Amino acid sequence: MDEVLNLLASALWFILPAYIANAAPVVLGGGKSIDGGRQFIDGRRIFGAGKTVQGFVAGLAAGTFVGLLQGIAVGPLPDYLALGFLLALGALLGDLLGSFIKRRLGIKRGGAAPGLDQLSFVLVALLAASPLALPSWEIVLTIIIITPPIHLATNFGGYKLGLKRRPY
Length: 168
Prior knowledge:
By secondary structure, the protein is mainly α. It has one domain. It is 68% helix and 0% strand. It is built from 5 helices and no strands. Helix 1 packs antiparallel against helix 2 and helix 4 packs across helix 5. The longest helix is centred in the middle third of the chain and has 28 residues. It is globular and about 50 Å long.
């Protein structure tokens, strides 16, 4: 049982900057959309109104800050700071990729895309962080398994707090 708990703790510790970066735009976002209202060649928005410059910057700052705190807590600081930045950047780019795909599929803002909504941000975050640090396959698998229920639970919480329009 201790081994499972250690695995869960290690997975959460590693991916925490990405989780925070992905959640921060819900609270700290708003303003001008990243795509500026432009459409892709298919006539649909590139990302949609929900992906904003302010949200992207806030998510990047929040995830990097978590990496800074992790570095202060356990060190070495430069490694954790860089890792936090890469995980945050990857999470935000993965979320944009998910939105881009959803728009191409004709799924409107806030519409559900099971799997894509929960995993695009974490998979791109892991890819972005891989040049600096790639955890064991057990930790990667744990992250992939725990992310969908965590994502759904935090979205439901955001919905109950009035931060999100839909509970998923």
